[in-house]
Amino acid sequence: MASRLQTAFPGWLVMWSPWRRTFTAFASFTPNALVMDEPTTDRLIDQMRMVERRPLNLAARR
């Protein structure tokens, strides 16, 4: 499932942690490190979409 999410959401590295029983997503397009953990794919997708919709803070890149 994690590989399907990663394919559906370019710019994200997605993995499943069986020990913690969570999906973890790393954004590769944000100026600062962004890591999200969610127990279900639905919640992770909601969070990923929310991040993708918000404008990037370009001042943080300086």
Automatic annotation (TrEMBL):
This is Uncharacterized protein. It comes from Thermomonospora umbrina. The lineage of its organism: Bacteria, Bacillati, Actinomycetota, Actinomycetes, Streptosporangiales.
